[in-house]
């Protein structure tokens, strides 16, 4: 993704500047052309000789010397992206106020390309309201921020403020500016969240699904170019939908109606919802009063949406199901793949640490119709969504 891209890397005076050496190396290895600008303070942390050798360009630091003047305007126009990593508290404050006392600031002020910053500072500085206000100002200018990490800091303390690792910075860069969109022109349908089956006006049968996994899949499909409809059970919708069409539902029956009405047009359907398998035969019109010691509810099976869609599936449509299991995981997942005529099943086992409901992480295995089994590590649900969508692209749209 970075091949041939022009990256202008600004390095400021922070101990995290040592990571910029690896950053340059990785950017160049990925095929990017890199020019480095350092602030005067950065030179104390990282040698220009190392940076110029790795970037294959002289390191720029001064606005002018006895002989020449650095053309800061053209540098900002040359770049596809200007990345400032690490961004120190001092340079952040100067940027927020539009100061221009070194080359890096002059280039930033005249840059016409997008800008991304990776702050690095000690925890107390990071949490100071002045820092927060300065960063908010930068974001209001349209600059993107790579979140800091929690960990050991230069002070010896442990806390928030560490610069993101070079590999993560590169991933941010790719995802924000250079992502390919192979799903452009494709329509996608995603179901997510639980369903609530009413017992009476105040009670329901539900489950612990947060909807996070399906929402992350919907966002990932959208960021890869698809036109996405998200059918979401009764959990909060994401703040930023960025063009995803949202259909809110409560019950399995409503989810069935919403999903089947969109399915015909969908090239890709991902059923991540935890649909109730049974629903009360009849919801009581009034609140049920407590009377006997025991109470029975008559339940009826809900419609299996995935199975129904698997039956309707036409050539060229890709159907992905989920399987959440506690025992005999692989066999149950393969049974679901076949029984529901899906193309891929994403298995998560509640026996895996950090997987399933309520976690921000998940651990999945993907099975596809050709018999492939692909195992993944425990990752954030956003990264898992990326794995699912990338697998789907590789298998059906490469
Ligand atoms: N599913 C569905 N409609 C249902 C039940 C499940 O569309 N009424 C979908 C889920 O969204 C998921 C897949 O089917 O993609 C598997 O769901 P899961 O609850 O794991 O399996 P079930 O088919 O319900 O079988 P069981 O509960 O016996 O494991």
Structural commentary:
This protein is α/β, with parallel strands linked by helices. The protein has 2 domains: 6-178, Rossmann fold (3-Layer(aba) Sandwich), CATH 3.40.50.1950; 187-285 and 295-396, 3-Layer(aba) Sandwich (Rossmann fold). The protein is 33% helix and 24% strand. It has 13 helices and 21 strands. The strands form 6 sheets. The chain has an 8-stranded mixed β-sheet, with helices on both faces. Strands 2-1-3-4-5 form a 5-stranded parallel β-sheet, with helices on both faces. Strand 19 (364-368) and strand 20 (373-375) form a beta hairpin. Helix 4 crosses helix 7 (129-140). The radius of gyration is 26 Å and the shape is elongated. The two termini are 15 Å apart. Cytidine-5'-triphosphate (CTP) binds next to helix 11 and strand 16.
In short:
The protein is 33% helix and 24% strand. The chain has 398 residues and is α/β, with parallel strands linked by helices. Strand 9 and strand 10 form a beta hairpin.
Shape: elongated
Low-pLDDT stretches:
none
Work out the radius of gyration.
26 Å
Helix tally equals 13
CATH topology of the largest domain: Rossmann fold
**Broad structural category:** alpha/beta
- The structural domain count equals 2
CATH superfamily of the largest domain: CoaB-like
What hetero molecules are in the model?
cytidine-5'-triphosphate
Rounded to the nearest angstrom, the distance between the terminal CA atoms is 15 Å
**Oligomeric status of the shown chains?**
single chain
What is the CATH-assigned architecture of the largest domain? 3-Layer(aba) Sandwich
Overall pLDDT metric = 94
Question: How many distinct beta strands?
Answer: 21
Q: Please indicate the percent range of residues in DSSP E strands (runs of 2 or more).
A: 15-25%
Q: How are strands sequenced across the largest beta sheet? A: 12-11-8-13-16-17-19-20
């Amino acid at each position: 993704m970075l091949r041939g891209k022009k990256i202008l890397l600004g390095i400021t005076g922070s101990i995290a500047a040592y990571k910029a050496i690896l950053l340059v190396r990785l950017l160049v290895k990925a095929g990017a052309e890199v020019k480095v600008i350092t602030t005067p303070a950065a030179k104390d942390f990282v040698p220009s000789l190392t940076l110029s050798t790795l970037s294959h360009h002289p390191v720029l630091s001064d606005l002018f010397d006895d002989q020449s003047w650095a053309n800061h305007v053209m540098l900002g126009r040359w770049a596809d992206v200007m990345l400032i990593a690490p961004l120190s508290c001092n340079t952040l404050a100067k940027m927020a106020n539009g100061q221009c006392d070194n080359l890096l600031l002059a280039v930033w002020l005249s840059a016409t390309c997008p800008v991304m910053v990776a702050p690095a500072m000690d925890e107390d500085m990071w949490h100071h309201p002045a820092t927060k206000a300065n960063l908010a100002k930068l974001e209001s200018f349209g600059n993107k921020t790579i979140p800091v990490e929690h960990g050991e800091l230069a002070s010896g303390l442990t806390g928030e403020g560490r610069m993101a690792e070079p590999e993560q910075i590169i991933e941010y860069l790719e995802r924000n500016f250079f992502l390919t969109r192979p799903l452009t022109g494709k329509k996608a349908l995603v179901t997510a969240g639980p369903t609530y089956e009413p017992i009476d006006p105040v009670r329901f049968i539900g489950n612990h699904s947060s909807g996070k996994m399906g929402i992350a899949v919907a966002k990932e499909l959208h960021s890869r170019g698809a036109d996405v409809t998200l059918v979401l059970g009764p959990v909060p919708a994401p703040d930023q939908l960025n063009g995803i069409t949202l259909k809110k539902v409560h019950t399995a029956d409503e989810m069935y109606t919403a999903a089947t009405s969109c399915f015909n047009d969908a090239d890709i359907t991902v059923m991540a919802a935890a649909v109730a398998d049974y629903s009360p035969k009849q919801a009581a019109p009034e609140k049920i009063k407590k009377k006997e010691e025991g109470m029975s509810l008559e339940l009826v099976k809900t419609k299996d949406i995935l199975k129904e869609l698997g039956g309707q599936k036409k050539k060229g449509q890709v159907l992905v199901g989920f399987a959440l299991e506690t025992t005999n995981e692989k066999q149950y997942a393969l049974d679901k793949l076949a029984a529901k005529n899906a193309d891929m099943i994403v298995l998560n086992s509640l026996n895996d640490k950090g997987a399933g409901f309520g976690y921000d992480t998940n651990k999945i295995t993907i099975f596809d119709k050709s018999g492939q089994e692909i195992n993944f590590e425990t990752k954030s649900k956003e990264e898992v969504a990326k794995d699912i969508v990338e697998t789907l692209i590789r298998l059906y749209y490469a």
